[in-house]
Specification:
With 338 residues, the protein is α+β, with helices and mostly antiparallel strands. It contains 7 helices and 16 strands. The protein has a 6-stranded mixed β-sheet with strand order 1-4-5-16-15-12, with helices on one face. It has a 4-stranded antiparallel β-sheet with strand order 6-9-7-8. A 4-stranded mixed β-sheet has the order 10-11-13-14. Helix 4 links the parallel strand 4 and strand 5. The longest helix has 23 residues. It starts with a strand and ends with a strand.
Length: 338
Amino acid sequence: ISACLVGSEMCIRDRPQSAGADPGPACYGRGGNEPTVTDANLVLGRLGPDAPLAGGVELDRDAARRAIEGLGRSLGMPPLDCAQGIVRVAVAEMVRALRVVTVQRGVDPRDFALLAFGGAGPLHAVAIAEELGMTRILCPRHSGVLAALGLLVSDRRRDVQRSVLLGGPELTGQAVARVCRELGRAAGQALGEPEAELAATFEMRYRGQSFELPVAGPLDASAQGLRQDFERAHSERYGFRASGQEVELVTVRVTATSPGAQVRLSPPAGQAAPQSLRRSVVIDNRQLELTVFRGAPAPRLQISGPAVVELPESTILVAPGWSGAVDDTGTLVLDRTR
């Protein structure tokens, strides 16, 4: 399960309110005075005031503390408790979003690894994984710009779809193939590559249902093959199949693709070893001394919590009870050890 954990800048006041890029968190020194998740992480020691963020953004811990203290006074809370509360609210929101795409769809997140990316996503990955009962986390070396990297390497594609609503005797292999040929030509032309690779997706349902399930299949799929694939998907998603019920094909979507850029995911040759220093941090109401690795770690480096890894574009918090190593692509693979 891949989760985009970007650590959005929420102001925790009477209600969530975005601080926006301008003026942004109080610690950015751009005139902002609302306490955000970034301010809370800085006050808790998870971010270091001596380590500029990507783009050379300097962090002002005193400004962050003043913003947190102001909110804390209005709530009758000490600054550290207030900062931890802000982080807990942010984690709860991200967990809620992940439950929507896993538990509420019949997927058990404990069967998957959590992919943490975004500049601040890896700061919260352990807390989110523990809430969901997940035991493995992947933090790519370029996690801070992973979305941009994904855009670069992704296939170029164009989707063309049509509502057909075919059922009963009208749902035949010939009818499906005719629609797929027409959509395939349109998709290839839209992509600018008439000979592009084509793939079809069929949105199907039992007659009388108000929702459809997408089923991948060949462009010349038979009616019987589509029914079997749909009933298999329906059984996996909802736990049952209605074999005597009529099946309807609602929408046909054809996708034309061409390969994206080829990127070599390996650390650069002659990479310098990361700096190692100590810092005080608050985790789970405890003041701890941890190791900070500043810079991209080399493959096979072992890291045990508590620790912080400061990558060029993101920061990873490794809480107590978690440990792992860096693989050959520079990805930090963390496992729950307790």
